[in-house]
Write a structure and sequence with these properties.
The protein is of the alpha+beta class. Helix content is 41%, strand content 28%. The chain has nine helices and 15 strands. The N terminus is likely disordered.
């Protein structure tokens, strides 16, 4: 890999020097032509070489500036915060590369058109290929009986048909963790809302929310958002692949901004950071859930998610890292999750 990088850099320098040499030769030819065509006793005769030299300098400086800006654009990276971690992603060009061999170090899917570096730690499972229904059921986000309604309503949603017919590839570490919700389960967002509502009532009629009223509101808000009693969590890297042909009947222009907007409307989480480049959209979020039961013990958990949305001619792709610092393997697998996210490439 390092040899290929060095070869690429040397090739780029060689091409640049050839271009610069061509400009210099053309400049010299113009100077010689001007000197030969202008009579020696003409007042401008002595100025032509100076003018042409200045013109030549302007061209060379212009090339330097152009190459400088092009290089900065080609190598520009955005720093995305992911909890206490940071990921550097180039948002100015799509992540494309020639297809590598499918080996123990590289995972390649020629059908869906992507490759990435395989995780190497012991407890990574083989990647799962899931339909959208299977993926949502695995997460505990829906119940089996809810799917017919979701499927029926999909045609009314922007990109709905494309999203519910998407394919998901999931790299999962270890066994998933079952998170059970309790009557006291809540989130930071819900608690802030309850505090503000209680202060509003106190300022208007002198009576803040009682403990019973707060508990009922907390319960209604929490379960009204989730509509489930538990969920499954695992540290994982997820690739959702959406067929563009199934977005032709959407209500909006099938592009990245409209797709991102539609995805966000299906979620009930705030964003930590949003970065939009020409060819991709990245965003991160933190979900802190309090008073949940794991293995019979009441505790809190923070789930961090990093997403990237981009496209090629045939597909939209959404990448997601899902990671929790409270999980036992959080420290050891972070670097591999980061590496999968950064080495993901669309096959040219």
């Amino acid at each position: 890999m390092e040899k290929e990088k060095r070869a690429s850099i040397l090739s780029e320098i060689s091409d640049w020097l050839k271009l610069l040499g061509l400009v210099v030769l053309v400049g010299e030819a113009i100077i010689i032509l001007a000197m030969n065509l202008t009579p020696k006793d003409h007042p401008m005769s002595s100025w032509y070489p100076i003018f042409m030299l200045i013109f030549l300098i302007i061209i060379v400086v212009g090339i330097f500036i152009d190459r400088y800006h092009q290089r900065n654009s080609d190598t520009a990276k955005e720093e995305i915060k992911f909890g206490s971690k940071v990921i550097d992603i180039d948002t100015h060009k799509p992540p494309t590369a020639p297809a590598p061999e499918n080996t123990e170090l590289n995972f390649v899917d020629n059908k869906l058109g992507f490759s990435l570096k395989r995780p190497q730690l012991k407890h990574w499972k083989d990647p799962l290929y899931l339909s959208n229904k299977e993926y949502l059921l695995k997460l505990g986000a829906i119940q089996e009986e809810q799917w017919p309604t979701i499927e029926a309503n999909s045609s009314l949603m922007p990109f709905g048909n494309m999203l519910i017919q998407s394919e998901t590839v999931m790299f999962e570490y270890g066994e998933p963790l079952e998170i059970n919700f309790t009557d006291a389960s809540t989130t930071d967002m819900i608690e802030k809302y309850i505090i503000r509502l209680s202060e509003f009532q106190k300022a208007n009629d002198g009576n803040p929310l009682t403990e019973e009223e707060q508990q009922k509101l907390r319960y209604d808000l929490f379960y009204g958002q989730l509509q489930v009693q538990n969920m499954m969590f695992s540290n994982s890297f997820i690739i959702q692949v959406m067929d563009k042909k199934k977005s032709l009947d959407t209500l909006f222009e099938p592009n990245l901004p409209n797709l991102y907007n539609s995805i966000q409307k299906t979620l009930s989480e705030g964003l930590d950071q949003l970065v939009s480049g020409k060819d991709s959209i990245l965003w991160s979020s933190t979900n802190s859930i309090k008073n949940i039961a794991i293995n019979g013990e009441t505790q809190h958990i923070s789930i961090y998610r990093m997403n990237r949305l981009f496209e090629n001619e045939k597909h939209f792709y959404q990448l997601q890292i899902q990671w929790s610092p409270q999980s036992k393997a959080a420290i050891s697998i972070w670097e591999e999750l980061k590496e999968m996210f950064e080495t993901f490439k669309l096959i040219e």
